[in-house]
Amino acid sequence: MFAHSALCVCVLLAVCVLRGSLSESQSQTQSYGERGSDLGLQVFLRVAQEKANENVVLSPHGVASILGMLLPGTHGETKRQILSGLRYKKNGPYKMLKKLHKTLTSKSNADIVTIANSLFPQLGFSMKEDFLSTNRENFMCETYPTDYSNPQHAAHAINEWVRNNTKGHIPSLVQADMLDPALTRLVAVNAIYFKGLWKSRFQPQNTKPRTFTPADGKPYKVPTMSQLSVFNIGLASTPEGLKYKVIELPYNGNSMSMLIALPSEETTPLANILPHISTATVQSWSKLLHQRKIRLLLPKFTIEAEVDLKGPLGRMGITHIFNESQADFRHMSTEPVYVSKALQKAKIEVNEDGTKAAAATTAIMLARSSPPWVTVDRPFLFLIRHSPTGTILFVGQINKP
Ligand SMILES: *[C@@H]1O[C@H](CO)[C@@H](O)[C@H](O)[C@H]1NC(C)=O
Ligand SMILES: *[C@@H]1O[C@H](CO)[C@@H](O)[C@H](O)[C@H]1NC(C)=O
């Protein structure tokens, strides 16, 4: 059987671009968005643990989407592993992922989030109609038959699609040597583009070089934005009693926000806070946050990071999809398929851009006492959250802005 049934390779690529500025959050009972995000957060925490001194950016929603795209093709234990990883029951997730996808790509978010999913099957690799139609309906996922016998050409076609669908922010993703002319059967791409504008912008003339001390302890200067405004801010604590500040920066439209977590004590490494982070923790922050006038100092940064999802997903019990002899994709194709590569590339740009002048400037100018300064000058965690669904679109640890 194995002699002829050529190994089918499925490369999963998720592309996420985030061009940001800031928003706000509300507490909810745990939604589907949060469940999917939880898996992605777990993946992030594992990667962050391995790369304690590096910048890491990941889209938890992208991880959930890619598993959601594969799910209708799976059967048996392979399916069970994905469902349990996503914490969905039976057939629940398709409708919810579809709804989530719709919400995130709705008109009100049109200027902020672009999610584009696509499958690139080998020319002539036959996929089951139900699988294709489910993906079309749930993820607006189109398929583009691609000839992998010419990896150079195939990589070029995929990269062009990625470039088109991320508005040029990720010009290239796949290299020809990632594709095998004989074995590649399917490349799945999930592209998320985010260009949030802060609700209240930072004035570019206030951006000045300031000292940032990365995890390795060697301070250096980094362009740091500054804004006097009213922000949601609070003090949280891990079960071990390590305190950290949480600051919420709303994006225009109020449905998205960036949440920043910064250890209160300079001696507390970010790595000691991370194990405590989950969607439940993030949800609990809303009770701690209060509006306060502060001067916020935040580094301006652009981070691009690629994450190989295979290791972390495998350690979380999603192993069958990657195993040639165990993967059961019988509802995708009659040919045996397994996933050889699962990559996600994410890019985030955080700068001054916003839609309005700093909201509270006038009020603050009138205030007599000078407001407290909150300076983000050490490694920090950020999350971009869609408040109505609790979906975590992006999460990152910034060690060197
Ligand atoms: C990308 O966009 C260009 C210009 O609109 C178009 O000609 C090309 O077909 C697109 N390529 C893909 C792969 O979508
Ligand atoms: C795949 O599964 C087989 C059978 O259960 C197992 O023997 C093998 O070690 C697995 N391969 C990998 C790479 O995990």
UniProtKB/TrEMBL annotation:
One of its GO terms (cellular component) is extracellular space. The keyword Lyase does not apply. Residues 1-23 form the signal peptide. Belongs to the serpin family. Keywords: Protease inhibitor, Serine protease inhibitor, Signal. The lineage of its organism: Eukaryota, Metazoa, Chordata, Craniata, Vertebrata. This is Glia-derived nexin. GO terms for biological process: negative regulation of blood coagulation; negative regulation of plasminogen activation. InterPro entries: Serpin_CS, Serpin_dom, Serpin_fam, Serpin_sf, Serpin_sf_1, Serpin_sf_2. It comes from Chanos chanos. PANTHER family: GLIA-DERIVED NEXIN, SERINE PROTEASE INHIBITOR, SERPIN. The gene is serpine2. It holds the Pfam family Serpin. SUPFAM superfamilies: Serpins (SSF56574). One of its GO terms (molecular function) is serine-type endopeptidase inhibitor activity. Residues 41-401 form the Serpin domain. The keyword Signal applies.
